[in-house]
Write a structure and sequence with these properties.
Blueprint (H helix, E strand, L loop, with lengths): L3 E6 L13 E6 L8 E2 L5 E2 L7 E6 L10 E7 L8 E2 L3 E2 L3 E4 L1 H11 L5 E11 L13 E2 L3 E6 L7 H4 L2 E6 L10 E4 L7 E7 L13 E4 L9 E3 L12 E3 L1 E2 L13 E7 L4 E8 L2 E4 L9 E2 L1 E3 L4 E8 L3 E7 L6 E2 L10 E3 L2 E8 L4 E5 L29 E5 L10 E2 L1 E4 L2 E9 L5 E5 L6 E4 L6 E2 L5 E6 L4 E2 L3 E8 L4 E6 L13 E5 L9 E5 L10 E2 L2 E5 L2 E7 L8 E7 L10 E5 L4 E4 L12 E2 L17 E5 L8 E2 L1 E3 L2 E8 L7 E6 L6 E3 L12 E6 L1 E2 L4 E2 L4 E9 L4 E7 L1
Parallel strand pairs: 4-12, 37-39, 42-49
Antiparallel strand pairs: 1-2, 3-5, 5-9, 6-7, 6-10, 8-9, 10-11, 10-12, 13-14, 13-16, 15-20, 16-17, 17-19, 18-21, 20-21, 22-23, 22-26, 24-25, 25-29, 26-27, 26-28, 29-30, 31-32, 31-35, 33-34, 34-40, 35-36, 36-38, 38-41, 40-41, 42-46, 43-44, 43-47, 45-46, 47-48, 49-50, 51-52, 51-55, 53-54, 54-60, ...
Length: 718
């Protein structure tokens, strides 16, 4: 039999990545090698801090007197086609896994909280002096199946991926404070990531030197730097590194942020991009001013809070310039990214392709620390609104935020419009966490609820199911009773709070009435919801709107309007939905707005704005009704120049004060004169009137003056 000669590594132990080792030559005969053997694995419900899982195994026998490498792999299928390398500790007879590390793999393969079959195998191989497996030397054990139930956990990149350390002056040459390049694609050789070369004060320290290491220390075998130290930052696209304690610090990069890629077999470090800042551009039509993003090295993502006043578009770009920009699907130079109206925390990582608009995290404190304190777990039910929630397959068992419930009565919480299929399962839990959760008593899982009937739940009980449909779910946190109700129905014998708004149009000529709301309760796009229900009280006919039970207790702002014909009330702000409201709308408008007031009180006439007491701007469809174009005041006239693009189909705008709608001027169009004059002729503006509409795209100079409680506009096409 012909013997094959291989170059093989003598390994003294395992590291996070393969490192160059001493080169020796041995004789290896593949036909005589014996594969490793993996013992039985007992499945369980995984938990954070649970006992380690210890598995017996027998090492492979390669028939050579040198060490070899064993790794444990986990897959979702028995053929191990999708196997992932597991974090595990090997000794001569046993393999040890922590439940937390196993949970990371279980979450990647399945939904949190659901049982999943996992398949395990040990792979042994001989390695070349570059850390790669010797062709033909790989030996795989038998495949072992075990069933585990994962738990919800936020998995850090450092817990999920193998990595190399980027250590340098920016972190005080302290491995405990480094950032990393990650093996995102489980190649074993290619590592990529974003690095922020800034000290605590945000000063870029990249060109003061850094190196890469394969472990959290200074092993010469995993210590990568340049052969010769550079004297200037020339920003090369790639660098050939060398191994060993004699390698020099990398001194070639001077910007703050970089996207790097490193191959630990060729030792080539590539620069994908570099920048001193990453920003958001284009939001609300503002293509001139970047929203500068922060960087979170713990979660390896840029982030910024944004507010889209209407549906809009945006992109990401570097250093407030267009040389380097990212669009849809994180493509460099890609199409604009569509953004729906709303408030979001935007997350971005150009290396991983992450673009995430997270409404839940808007305005919250970003988790950037190395650890952070564990929040107190409530000992029992807590009556804090909006923190009880529905969790299940419909939320990927915590992969998405729980469907939070609102307080609708004493100890009573509800979530409207929960849509499930016949295969979906769900439970009730507190604070987006499994510490306090409720399901069905007994051993049946899933337990099929009866729609419309009360069911008393048990702490930590079984999953629930319901026939396919859309439901309103009610939960009493004192008695632990749940009702799954047909949409729009409430449980019998349960006191569910509700709030109604009544509006009497008095002598107005309004044919219809719509209700619009914002910053609390959203009735949809302008002009809101058309009111059709009516009630007669003391001889007066009121339009009526009844809020859903889940709106109880929130604070909102509202406007009544004549269904988008230009007539509307003034803003009614700070309405707390904890009682019924009765509004009267007088027959005549005051200064362009109808003054709705509560029945039994007197209307308050608004004061007409004084030009010099406000900051004025122009807003319209040309900038997606967001980001007012500031007007300059001189000689009693406020003036601004706007540009309406060809893509603007509406060509509408208004002039307003202080960036809100309390004081604004428009144009009352008629059939004879639907368009505002644009020849520079001054005309009387309508206070709080209709939109100004022009016919053609182009640049316009817009001027406003106010005299004797009357506004005057002048529009000149340039």
């Amino acid at each position: 039999m012909k013997k094959l000669l291989y170059s093989i590594l003598a390994l003294s132990g395992l590291a996070m990545v393969s490192c160059t080792q001493e080169h020796i030559d041995v004789q290896y005969t593949p036909e005589n090698a014996v594969a490793p053997v993996l013992g039985a694995i007992e499945g369980c419900d995984l938990s954070e801090g649970g006992n380690d899982i210890v598995v017996e195994y027998t090492k492979a026998d390669f028939g050579v007197a040198t060490a070899n490498v064993h790794n444990l792999y986990i897959a979702k299928t028995e053929d191990m086609a999708d196997m992932k390398k597991a974090k595990a500790t090997f000794n001569d007879a046993n393999i040890t896994l922590t439940q937390a590390d196993l949970n990371v793999v279980a979450l990647e393969f399945g939904n949190a909280g659901e049982p999943i079959d996992l398949y395990f195998a040990v792979v042994a191989n001989l390695n070349t002096d570059k850390g790669a497996a010797v062709a033909g030397s790989e030996l795989m054990s038998n495949v072992v199946k075990a069933t585990f139930k994962s738990y919800v956990a936020d998995v850090l990149p450092t817990e999920k991926f193998e990595k190399v350390w980027v250590i340098g002056n920016y972190c005080g040459w302290d491995h405990a404070k480094t950032q990393f390049l990650f093996d995102y694609n489980s190649t074993g050789t290619t590592f990529a990531g974003v690095v922020d070369f800034a000290d605590a004060e945000g000063v870029s320290l990249a060109n003061t030197g850094f190196k890469l290491t394969g472990i959290a220390g200074w092993d010469d075998a995993c210590n990568w730097g340049e052969e010769t130290k550079a004297t200037e930052a020339d920003e090369p696209a790639s660098i050939q590194l060398i191994t060993g304690g004699g390698s020099q610090d990398i001194m070639r990069y001077a910007k703050r942020f970089y996207g790097f890629e490193f191959d630990n077999t060729t030792l080539v470090l590539k620069k994908s991009w570099g920048a001193d800042q990453i920003g958001i551009i284009g939001l609300n039509g503002d293509w001139d001013n970047d929203i500068v993003m922060n960087y979170n090295p713990k979660w390896t993502r840029f982030y910024a809070d944004i507010e889209a006043s209407a549906d809009t578009e945006m992109k990401f770009r570097a250093d407030a310039a267009w040389d380097l920009n990212w669009g849809a699907e994180c493509a460099q130079g890609g199409d604009n990214i569509a953004v729906a109206a709303g408030k979001y925390r935007v997350y971005f990582n150009p290396v991983t392709g992450l673009i995430d608009f997270n409404a839940k995290n808007y305005g919250t404190e970003e988790d950037t620390g190395a650890g952070g304190e564990t929040p107190d777990v409530p000992e029992g039910p807590v009556t804090e609104p909006d923190r009880w929630g529905v969790v299940g397959t419909i939320t990927e068992w915590g992969g998405q935020a729980d469907l939070y419930m609102s307080e609708v009565g004493e100890n009573l919480f509800a979530r409207n419009g929960v849509t499930v299929t016949a295969d979906d399962q769900f439970k009730i839990r507190f604070n987006n966490d499994w510490a306090v959760n409720y399901g069905a008593a007994g051993d049946v899982e899933p337990f099929a609820v009866t729609v419309g009937e009360k069911l008393t739940l048990a702490a930590g009980g079984k999953n629930l199911s319901a026939p396919a449909g859309t439901y309103d779910i009610y939960f009493n946190i004192s008695t632990f009773d749940i009702w799954v109700m047909a949409e729009g129905e409430t449980p019998d014998g349960v006191d569910v709070k509700s709030v109604k708004l009544y509006a009497h149009k008095e002598g107005t000529a309004w044919a219809e009435m719509a209700l619009y709301g914002w910053d609390g309760y959203d009735f949809g796009g302008w002009p809101g919801i058309l009111l059709t229900e009516k009630e007669t009280i003391d001889g007066k006919e009121f339009f009526v709107y009844e809020f859903p039970a889940t709106a109880y207790g929130i604070t909102t702002n509202i406007i009544f309007n004549n269904n988008n014909n230009g007539e509307q009330t003034q803003d009614i702000t700070g309405i707390v939905l904890n009682r019924d409201y009765y509004f009267i709308i007088p027959a005549e408008a005051e200064n362009g707005r109808f003054m709705a007031y509560e029945m039994g009180t007197e209307p308050v006439k608004p004061s007409f704005p004084v030009l010099t007491e406000h900051s004025w701007g122009v807003i319209g469809s040309f900038n997606n009704w967001g980001g007012d174009v500031a007007m300059e005041i001189a000689d009693g006239v406020a003036t601004a120049t706007i540009e309406i693009p060809e893509t603007d189909a509406d060509k509408k705008f208004k002039v307003r004060a202080d960036g809100d709608w309390a004081n604004n001027f428009g144009y009352s169009a008629t059939e004879e004169a639907p368009l505002a004059p644009v020849d520079g002729t001054e005309f009387a503006a309508t206070f709080n009137g209709s939109d100004i509409v022009v016919e053609a795209a182009g640049k316009y100079q817009v001027s406003l003056r106010i005299e004797n409680e009357q506004g005057y506009l002048k529009i000149a096409k340039l």
